[in-house]
Specification:
By secondary structure, the protein is mainly alpha-helical. It contains five helices and two strands. The chain has a two-stranded antiparallel ribbon with strand order 1-2.
Length: 133
């Protein structure tokens, strides 16, 4: 029994070596060893990205990024419009969450109204968390 095990143990590396040689000889006969063009590599990578879903994920991330940028630009546009109106001497008002119309030159009511919004509360909670962690 031990002799058979030893013979098998010696045969295994020889079999693996012959398999490797067969794979190498097959590889030298395939078109993969021909010069590879940029287009071929690009097509292969694109196909792989599509089949794995990586391309879709990347495009979704880009789309979300563009949406956030668009939102930020729109907010800055609204802010500059309001600043322009104030520079022109116009009196601006806003309606707080309670439905009361407040003048924009009174900072305390505006700040209290802002503090009541869920977004501001989450922003401040994240800020405090960052400070105390």
């Amino acid at each position: 029994m031990a002799k058979e095990e030893l013979e098998n143990a010696f045969k295994e590396p020889e079999e693996q070596e012959s398999l490797i040689k067969n794979e190498e000889s097959e590889a030298t006969q395939t078109p993969e060893n021909e010069p590879v063009s940029f287009t071929t590599v690009g097509k292969k990578l694109l196909r792989q990205a599509i089949t794995t879903g990586n391309l879709k994920e990347a495009l979704d991330k880009i789309s979300n990024s563009i949406d956030l940028t668009k939102c930020a630009v729109e907010c800055f546009t609204q802010i500059t419009e309001k600043a322009q109106m104030k520079l022109e001497g116009k009196t601006l008002e806003f309606t707080d969450r309670g439905g009361t119309v407040q003048p924009t030159d009174k900072w305390v009511p505006m700040f209290l109204s802002l503090m009541k919004t869920e977004e501001f509360q989450h922003l401040m909670a994240n800020f405090l968390y960052t400070i105390v962690k």
